Amino acid sequence: MAKQNVAEQFVDILARAGVKRLYGVVGDSLNPVVDAIRRNSAIDWIHVRHEETAAFAAGAEAQVTGSLAACAGSCGPGNLHLINGLYDAHRSMAPVLALASHIPSGEIGLGYFQETHPELLFQECSHYNEMISNPEQMPRLLQTAIQHAIGRGGVSVVAMPGDIASKPAPEKSIEHALVTERPSVRPGDDEIDKLCRMVDEAKRVTLFCGSGTAGAHAEVMEFAEKIKSPVGHALRGKEWIQYDNPYDVGMSGLLGYGAAYEATHECDLLVLLGTDFPYNAFLPDDVKIVQVDVRPEHLGRRSKLDLAVWGDVRETLRCLTPRVKPKADRRFLDRMLKKHANALEGVVKAYTRKVEKHVPIHPEYVASVLDEMADEDAVFTVDTGMNNVWAARYLTPNGKRRVIGSFSHGSMANALPQAIGAQFTDRDRQVVAMSGDGGFSMLMGDFLTLVQYDLPVKVVLFNNSSLGMVELEMLVAGLPSYGTTNKNPDFAAIARAAGAFGVRVEKPKQLQSALKDAFKHKGPALVDVVTDPNALSIPPKISAEMVTGFALSASKIVLDGGVGRMLQMARSNLRNVPRP
């Protein structure tokens, strides 16, 4: 049997860790690894058109599967392109291993062609970032990187010069059993006892949930029922906690709706469950706050805590719920449920009148129809900007659907590449990219990746010929919009020219049939919907001081607009309110 080289050993270890694909663009320093993949049936090389796409795709795959995913870039500019997608994966706690191929080891530090220093470049967007400078470091260094990515939830980067990859692997290298799953983290008994006393002493408790409630829906509902608590959520918590939730009071933040803000401010005790909600202007400063999080570094960095609990949400609630005293008084819960339903009643009509005649098309109408027509287990990938608004307001979670976006990093152009990674995990599952024209055109070249692999991703393009969220930020700050207009082509014609299904929609009555045809098409499809750039109304009293990036600072005011099927959910929850 021929002796392995370092590249072959590298690929074998990735396969043992469960990696199915390596996304990237080939290049000279990366060639030994790509050739090793060619000869290894356990891993596929996925050739994308831009390395940023590779990193976004790997991050999405990791979020859909919960398993390690991988991407790679060749030396210098190649791996440098990975950085934005890796930032997103890292901030999303997606386990991703990135291979940053490097220049010849003997030339490092001498200003060689394409030289960069990946061990410095990726420091901030990784838990682990080291270079293999000698074959003897394999496989221990790679195994360490894998366990950082999986164990801590985020990115590990391994830099490796091409000449090192071609060298023989060490004969007596140490290979050990790899960690491929994260453990549950249970708080100590003292913390559980303190939390139990605080819950028992509070008359009005509100739960506010983030993505850390994934897998804990039943536990959150049981706890809310026992203590008669309203349940609000952040955007990343929506898919995990909003469905089958008779205690739902909506979402807080700039994109929020309903009574979540009131519920978090009118309680005696606010319990933050698995959320790193970044906008502290929407959090109260005059109520007791408890935070439960599996990442201890998240505890207390958004608000002053009365108790910090280190543990994952499911295990914490399994310990806590049996110990707390049941509450019989549900007046606070019922009042919040009524406020929630009333708030939604007040805004739902904003974009439901004469929508079938409105040209350009209301984007809210597009999102509403898309929500109704998409599969029950669809994966939605959502571009940053106004598409975040439509996803927050109109996509209906049900415990089967997934909604993935750049919700923590806030990058443009994420939806298409994330859809690539999501679709590779299951070609039979419907994947819908909710793209904006700005984001889509930024990485439009990777639409060709859909065609090359015949991936049946459906791109629904909200085409308002502008950078809509930026225009909104300028408007609220009292500035005239400038540099935000896009002169767009017929994107559907481009899709057809590339060999995919493409249809352009300019009138509301064309929308349903266009989506139906796209969903029936077996390969990649693009629906280019011309939408109204002025669709979103905003509160009338907003000053420049209220806006900081994506958040309204020091204000409870949120954007006004429709809420789709969430009104029906709120109405159904009112059935739980006892009649006088």
Can you describe what's shown?
It is globular and about 75 Å long. It is built from 23 helices and 21 strands. The protein is an alpha/beta fold. It starts with 5 loop residues before the first helix and ends in a 7-residue tail after the last helix. Helix 16 (386-394) links the parallel strand 14 and strand 15. Strands 10-9-8-7-11-12-13 form a 7-stranded mixed β-sheet. Strands 2-1-3-4-6-5 form a 6-stranded parallel β-sheet, sandwiched between helices. Mean pLDDT is 90; it is low at 537-559.
Quick recap of the structure?
By secondary structure, this protein is α/β, with parallel strands linked by helices.
What key phrases describe this protein's structure?
alpha/beta; six-stranded parallel sheet; 16% strand; 580 residues; seven-stranded mixed sheet
Helix coverage percent: 25-40%
Quaternary state of this entry equals: single chain
Q: Based on helices, strands and strand pairing, what is the structural class?
A: alpha/beta
Number of helical regions: 23
Q: What is the general shape?
A: globular
Largest β-sheet summary? 7 strands, mixed
* Strand tally: 21
Largest sheet: spatial strand order: 10-9-8-7-11-12-13
Termini separation comes to 82 Å
Which residues sit in consecutive blocks of at least 5 with pLDDT less than 50? 537-559
Strand content: 15-25%
The radius of gyration computed from the alpha-carbon positions, rounded to a whole number of angstroms, is 25 Å
What is the typical, i.e. mean, pLDDT? 90
